[in-house]
Amino acid sequence: MIYTVTLNPSIDYIVEVDDLKLGDLNRMNRDLKLPGGKGINVSRVLNQLGAENTALGFLGGFTGRFINDKLQEDEIQTDFVTIADDTRINIKLKHGEETEINGLGPAIRPEEAAGLLNKLSALQKGDIVILSGSVPPSLGADFYDRLINVCKQTSAEFVIDTTGPALMDALVHEPLLVKPNHHELAELFGVTIDTQEELVTYGRKLLETGAKHVLISMAGEGALLITKTDVYHASVPKGVVKNSVGAGDSMIGGFVGTFGLNEDLLEAFRMGVASGSATAFSDDLATRELIEKLRIQVIITKL
Ligand SMILES: Nc1ncnc2c1ncn2[C@@H]1O[C@H](COP(=O)(O)OP(=O)(O)OP(=O)(O)O)[C@@H](O)[C@H]1O
Ligand SMILES: O=P(O)(O)OC[C@@]1(O)O[C@H](CO)[C@@H](O)[C@@H]1O
């Protein structure tokens, strides 16, 4: 079974204005409320692909109920810990460019945190746990460490999609997959990366530290898959970009959902890229129909 963990879910409130005037009254052309948070996005894409999964994490208040209802409507399995505080609302402002304002996240009480750890203690060998997104400050910076320890104790595989020290600390525990984008990879090592060779060099360092597979996404510029033995490049399909929010999560969903079937790495890479692009070309997240259509446009080359 695949599990996603979203410690800090959100309602993504997508607001479109023609011309943003700061310090003035702006009126929306269009708005949309979506269940959000990185792990929840991964679950929604896994669901499109027919990959059985359960979404875990913390949900609370009217915002939490909205998210839960939306996931139920899509028949996504959930097992969230209910918290007393309200789940956050993240603003995604489209005004020619995309400006995001993400909330810090609710207060999580110690007994609520313990509730999630307890749910994860039922994991089994063969399970894959996808840990994605920010950690609400009240949980403490080491909360991913605690979740990873439970994965190790239960012999479940884990994927981690976060940045900075939390990602670096996770590597020694041998995640099945990490997926920094090219900017995050450079930041992680405090360097500037200008060439594909440099991307591969730094991507390999993540493998040497413990990651089993490394995906490096470069938005519209393609993606790299680095394994212990090989490096592959994928082209990305061409299309009109409508929304980049959740493209990275969709890529993880496409990759893990496919890899979980028969461990076919290159097919997982292809589906990961197609899923990321299908989201980039949609108002909401990728649909199975568009993923399948884009899949055949992805060209993978061994470097
Ligand atoms: N402009 C684009 N054209 C085509 N595909 C895209 C584009 N932007 C993103 N994608 C697809 O989505 C994948 C992930 O994109 P990106 O590198 O932006 O990840 P990310 O930075 O983690 O995304 P996010 O915006 O969700 O944080 C890419 O590998 C690609 O398949
Ligand atoms: O604040 P975090 O947890 O880093 O990111 C949260 C978030 O921006 O990530 C998703 C897109 O990847 C959105 O659904 C959500 O609003």
TrEMBL record:
**ATP-binding keyword on record:** yes
Which reactions fall under this protein's catalytic activity? beta-D-fructose 1-phosphate + ATP = beta-D-fructose 1,6-bisphosphate + ADP + H(+); D-tagatofuranose 6-phosphate + ATP = D-tagatofuranose 1,6-bisphosphate + ADP + H(+)
Q: What GO molecular function terms would the record report?
A: 1-phosphofructokinase activity; ATP binding; tagatose-6-phosphate kinase activity
Entry-linked Pfam families: PfkB
The record's annotation in SUPFAM superfamilies points to:
Ribokinase-like
Q: Which domain of life does the UniProt lineage start with?
A: Bacteria
Question: Pathway involvement?
Answer: Carbohydrate metabolism; D-tagatose 6-phosphate degradation; D-glyceraldehyde 3-phosphate and glycerone phosphate from D-tagatose 6-phosphate: step 1/2
User: Which InterPro entries does its entry note?
Assistant: 1-PFruKinase, Carboh/pur_kinase_PfkB_CS, PfkB_dom, Ribokinase-like, Tagatose/fructose_Pkinase
Q: Name one GO biological process term.
A: D-tagatose 6-phosphate catabolic process
Q: What is its EC number?
A: 2.7.1.144
Role noted for this protein: Catalyzes the ATP-dependent phosphorylation of fructose-l-phosphate to fructose-l,6-bisphosphate.
- Would you identify the family this protein belongs to, as annotated? Belongs to the carbohydrate kinase pfkB family. Belongs to the carbohydrate kinase PfkB family. LacC subfamily.
Q: What is this protein called?
A: Tagatose-6-phosphate kinase
